[in-house]
Structure formats: C-alpha cells, structure tokens
Amino acid sequence: MNVEYIEKKLESKEPLNFEDAKYLLSSEKLIEIGKLARKIKYEKSQNKVYFVFNKHINYTNLCVSKCKFCAFYRNGDEQDAYTMEIDTIIDEIGKMPNGIKEVHIVGGLHPKKPFSYYVDMIKTIKKNFRDINVKAFTAVEIDYFSNLEGISYKETLSILKNAGLDSMPGGGAEVFSERVRKRLYPNKIPYEKWAEVHKIAHSLDIPTNATLLFGHIETDDEIINHLFKLKKIQEESPGFLCFIPLSFHPENTPLSENIKKVDAVRELKVLALSSIILDNFPHIKAYWVMLSPKVGQIGLHFGADDIDGTIGQERVTHAAGAKSPLGLAKENMINLIKNAGFVPVERDALYNEIAVYDE
Ligand code: V47
Fold first, then answer.
1. I need a labelling partner for 232 at 20 to 30 A (CA). Which of 78, 252, 281, 350 fits?
2. Relative orientation angle of helices 139-149 and 191-203, to the nearest 10 degrees
3. Mean pLDDT of 147-165
4. pTM value?
5. How far apart are CA 308 and CA 172, in angstroms?
6. CA of 334 to the centre of ligand 1 (A)
7. Superfamily classification of domain 3-356
8. For residues 341 and 326, is the Cβ–Cβ distance under 8 A?
9. Which residue out of 246, 251, 284, 311 has the highest number of ligand 1 atoms within 8 Å of its CB and is therefore the one to mutate?
10. What mean pLDDT comes out for the span 165-185?
C-alpha cells in the first residue's frame, strides 16, 4: 500500500475501504495525505473558506452525565456551578453587534429543569432575534428531554422545531465505540441512539452536524469505524452539513494524569482523513477553538473549508485548558483565511453566502 495507490483510487472515484483508511492514519506522509484531502476540498468549495458570525451559549454547567473527558460539568453545589435564566440568555445575545447569524446553544444535562425551560428558551430567542439561526441541543440532550417527557424523539424534535429550532450541532457523538463509552461516558447514549436522533432530525428537515472526539483512549480502528458509520448515516438519511473533528483537551479532567494532548501532526492527519472518507459531507470544519487559530489555519490546507466563527465566549474547551482566545473578531477570521491563501466567505448557519472577501 502507498499514497499513490490511494490517490489513483480517489481519481477513479472508487470508494476507500477500511484498510486504505488505516494506512493513511498510520502513515507518516502527512503532506501527501494533505494533498489528497485538499483536492477533495477544492472539488467541493474551490478556493473558498467559510466562517460565520456566531455566538456560543452554554446555559448550564450542571450535568448528570459526568463524562470522564469533561472539565466543564459541575454537580450543583460548587461555587462556579451556574444555570442561566432565559432573560440572561436574551441579554447575552442582545449584547452582540448587529449581523450575528447563528447562536450555538448547548449545555449540561440539568438535573431539575423541565422540558418547558428549553422550549421557552428557543421560543424567546426566536421572538427577540427573528433572523438568527438557532442551532441548539445535541442528540444527547434530545434523548434526555424525550426521557424527561416520556415522548418519542420525533415528538421532542417536532416540539422544538415548532418553537424555532433551526439546526443542531454535532456534539455528543464522542467516538462510536462501546469499549470507550463504557470507560469514559457510560451514562451517555450509544451510537445507535445518536444516529437515530440525527436521522429523525434530517427527516424533519432539521440539518445537523457531526463530530468525533479523538486523542484520548481510542484506537485508530475506532476512529475509522466512526467515520464510516457517519458516512453511512449520510448515505441513508442525508442532512449533515458539516463534520468537526475535536481533539481531546485533558487539563482539569480525571484523565489528565495519563493522557497528554495530541500534537498538531495528529490533529492534521485526522482532519485530512476525515475529509477524504467523508466526501459526502458538504463541509469539514477546522474548529479553531480546539486546534488553536494557528493550527486551524494550517488545517485549511488539510481538507477543511470552514473555520467556524467568532464564538463570543467558549466555555467547554476552555474549562479543559484550551489556550486559544475565548472568541475572535470578524477581521481576525478574514485575515486567518486570507493569509492561508483562500477566499474568506462569510456564511449563515446553512452555508448561504453573506459576503465574499475576494479583493
Ligand atoms: O461533545 C468535551 C467535546 C463537544 C472536551 O456542530 C471536549 O458546529 C475536547 O460538539 N476536550 C461539544 N473536547 C462541542 C461540539 C461542537 C463544537 C464546535 C462546533 C460544533 C458544530 C460542535 O466537545 C462534546 C465533546 O466531544 N468535549 N470536553 C475536552 N475536554
């Protein structure tokens, strides 16, 4: 096996198999793999790289799931435990300058808040900010709400859609492996349920994203299985907009003693492999918060055509020691993309183009 063999397969549009992916992930030919990924990126989005003017809201850090990779969650009695009331959320969004296109809303699995809190949250945001796309709740939250109410995923998602839910983020997927789930996040839904929620969301015309959390105890085989599973969901029930590989940040987590953060080479290789395997995903994101703006910028040469957005204030990765800024100004996004040699395109949450910065 060599990279040229895989390049020929890609040129003749022959799908890659597990062994091909395994070779790429273990190969040291980073630049050659990046070249394959970049070619796929150019076929999809030419020399454009997308960013969005957005804001993250993490409404609570109370969480009953207690995943071992998470530094963000609190039990409830700690000094820094918090839950935002809806008015506070509205105030936070209101503080953003005009032109914000997306709010990305996720939080812990709160032990007490009823489903009506989440429905009212979406309704009130939509009432106050009609033109902002509300991208909220991962499949994990949807499963939690459906259990709270004793209703199906379809009913849960329909109620949220009627309240104003426009799209869903890709979190909570972690890595689709029962071995890893049992050790690191036994209280979180398994692959089958994550997939079911996303398939139902797609059938209700709610576009979603997908993620992979890597750089902890997973094996190469588990990463590759994860990618092929996502590819299959997209074939059967299209509706994923974007894939985001997330590198594990160990600081302040129970895993920090034994696990060091993966290096940039591994991050770029997983990013490139993801964009090669997930050629049926319209977009691949180099999420600058996890990668750092600098590695994120290089990631644009490794298959990514999106760098996420301005974000405002990110809490989950920063709780786990991320050294990236809490948010970036729009000018920073534009410069990062331009200086990497691409054309910055401001998008909305659904990848409609708002502005092209090509001079
Ligand atoms: O599911 C939690 C991850 C995810 C840590 O859809 C950690 O556009 C690293 O899904 N180190 C939430 N990662 C974030 C997420 C996301 C981010 C940006 C864009 C989109 C999108 C989705 O963060 C969780 C988990 O996999 N995470 N703790 C940690 N210590």
1. 350
2. 90
3. 98
4. 0.97
5. 18
6. 23
7. Aldolase class I (3.20.20.70)
8. no
9. 246
10. 98
